[in-house]
Amino acid sequence: MVIGVPKEIKDHEYRVSLTPAGAATLRQNGHTVWLEPSAGQGSGFSDDEYHKAGVLVADSKDEVFREAELILKVKEPLLSECHLFRPGQVLFTYLHLAALADVTKALLSSKITAIAYETTESKDGSLPMLKPMSEIAGRMSVQIGAQYLEKIHGGRGVLLGGVPGAEPGKVVVLGAGIAGSSATRIAVGMGAQVTVINLDIERLRYLDDQYQGRIVTRAVSPTAIEEAVCSADLVIGAVLISGAKAPKLVSRSLVSRMKPGSVIVDVSVDQGGCVETTRPTTHSEPVYVVDGVVHYCVANMPGIVPRTSTYALTNATLPYLLQLAGDGVDRAIRSDPGLAKGINLKNGKVIHRGVAEAHGLPFTPIL
């Protein structure tokens, strides 16, 4: 199969979808890889490294799209890229289409097969290609939140770890999945007072055992969320419903009752966010203030740690890419029901129920 690796153009997105080592593995398996010039530069990989791995370095993005049967990306295409697709082409990337009506419409019109990293499941029902970026975003969320709590950034002037005689900052983590657990790990390590709120009691039980009393766990309820959020210095939104919009756990009225200068980092912004006042931001303009509360809602947080992120991403995606390239889409999804769940769009139809419901579109099951 011919695989194309374009350069990411989302604001301050420095990741690339394939390392030179990953490209070499594809070449060893008989596949052809086309690379847009300097696509790997932001992650520290030169065109020469790809060339030595057997990659064909194109003259332009247009050439990559023209030659490739499968386009391999990190983030969803921007509208300015959607016209480059042709019917029958395959797109393999993070899509998060439930929050992107315009992109969904454009990709439907192109009649491609769009496979999402974030909805592909492994045999145990986990999300293997979403996991590494969730780990990174979760860990980043606390260090970023700590930065914006500084007075010079508009925050309350709270040090999360506190000092003797001054209490630590209070961190509330909404969700105890991969991102929430990763955020909890960093917040505990920084010495904060941490409360984790989650729907699954067994997951809370696991975290309680892991941290042996160093965190507070609470089951989801309006009262629990209200009490925790109103007392928080930093709220981390880390709620996920695979392929669908995130539920709004924190209302606008609740945000207005938070402490002035407190901070919200909504990691679930890719799926619309779990805070009513969430709207996507960029690394160029990462924050805004609502009712005195600083909001950080960057939709590609791992993009600014690209070296780590690109290695982690390729490790997770390469087995699936080899499967798709070796067997073709139709055969691959027949043999792997978890991979079939990754298909969001196919031939102008919405294949994922969560995407269809988010936009009021017809849902067509693939299997």
Short characterization:
This protein has helices at residues 20-28, 47-52, 61-67, 79-82, 101-110, 131-148, 178-189, 201-211, 222-231, 252-255, 306-327, 329-335, 337-340, 353-359; strands at 2-5, 32-35, 56-57, 70-72, 90-93, 113-116, 170-174, 193-198, 215-219, 234-237, 263-266, 287-290, 293-296, 343-346, 349-350.
C-alpha termini separation: 24 Å
State the CATH superfamily name of the largest domain. NAD(P)-binding Rossmann-like Domain
Number of strands: 15
Structural domains: how many: 2
CATH architecture term of the largest domain: 3-Layer(aba) Sandwich
CATH topology of the largest domain: Rossmann fold
Q: What is the topology, as strand order, of the major beta sheet?
A: 3-2-1-4-5-6-14-15
In one word, what is the shape?
globular
What is the H/E order? Answer: EHEHEHEHEHEHEHEHEHEHEEEHHHEEH
- Round the Cα radius of gyration to an integer and report it: 21 Å
Portion in strands: 15-25%
